[in-house]
């Protein structure tokens, strides 16, 4: 599984990254978590940040930030 957290490096985006890593750990799934900060790369997926992409499927973009539990649901739903 490949998970991408998209954001320019703001506090919200870094929070999303940490929550995503925590959700992956809690689920016990094998996943590569990438953090994309390049705006050209981000705009290939979403218009609003932070964004979350699971196996090339956009599952979240913008605010409000999802909780760890919500991210777990998004990851499970994309499997």
Summarize the structure.
The protein has one domain: Glutaredoxin.
What does this molecule look like?
The chain has a single domain, classed as Glutaredoxin (3-Layer(aba) Sandwich), CATH 3.40.30.10. The protein has 3 helices and 4 strands; from the N terminus they run βαβαββα. The protein has helices spanning 11-27, 39-43, 68-78, and strands spanning 2-6, 32-36, 51-54, 57-61. A 4-stranded mixed beta sheet has the order 2-1-3-4. It is globular and about 30 Å long. The chain starts with a strand and ends with a helix. The mean pLDDT is 95.
Outline, from the CA principal axes?
A: globular
- Approximately what portion of the residues adopt beta-strand conformation? 15-25%
The CATH topology is given as Glutaredoxin
CATH class division: Alpha Beta
Order of helices and strands: EHEHEEH
Number of helices: 3
Helix content: 40-55%
The CATH homologous superfamily corresponds to Glutaredoxin
Head-to-tail CA distance between termini: 8 Å
**Rounded radius of gyration (Å):** 11 Å
């Amino acid at each position: 599984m490949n998970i991408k957290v998209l954001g320019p490096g703001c506090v919200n985006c870094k929070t999303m990254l940490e929550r995503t890593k925590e959700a992956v750990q809690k689920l016990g799934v094998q996943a590569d978590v990438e953090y994309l900060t390049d705006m050209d790369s981000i705009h290939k997926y979403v218009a609003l940040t932070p964004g979350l992409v699971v196996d090339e499927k956009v599952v979240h973009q913008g605010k409000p930030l999802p909780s760890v539990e919500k991210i777990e649901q998004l990851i499970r739903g994309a499997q």
